[in-house]
Amino acid sequence: MLKINQLNKEFESRVRLGIMSVLMVNDWVDFTGMKNLLEVSDGNLASHSTALEKAGYIEVKKEFVGKKPKTSYRVTQAGREAFTEHLNALEKLLGR
Question: In terms of residue numbers, what domain contains 30?
Fold first, then answer.
């Protein structure tokens, strides 16, 4: 039987779930694209992406395109594995 504490706390936020869901099916996604997809503020996306980066679940690439800064994200292998485990745990919790 699955216990609820077996779910990954890093993915409790809907924003983090959204970030991970988008990155599981896309290679690199830029900040503006992610912000628009999730309909969140700059600060909200920045704080949640920083937390996922610190956990080792996403990679953040900062570069300049012309003179404009560009931030992009992609899921790491550790992030892919952790998110898959989290989704599997949710399915077990739902009895699937």
Answer: 13-93
User: Can you read off the two tokens belonging to residue 29?
Assistant: 């996604």
Amino acid at 48: H
Q: Which helix (H) or strand (E) holds 96?
A: none
What pTM value is reported for the model?
0.90
**Helix, strand, or coil here: 11?**
helix
* Cβ(83)–Cβ(24) below 8 Å: yes
Question: 28-65, pLDDT tens digit by residue?
Answer: 999 999 999 999 999 999 999 999 999 999 999 999 99
- Tally of structural domains, the chain: 1
DSSP string for 53-69: HHTTSEEEEEEEETTEE
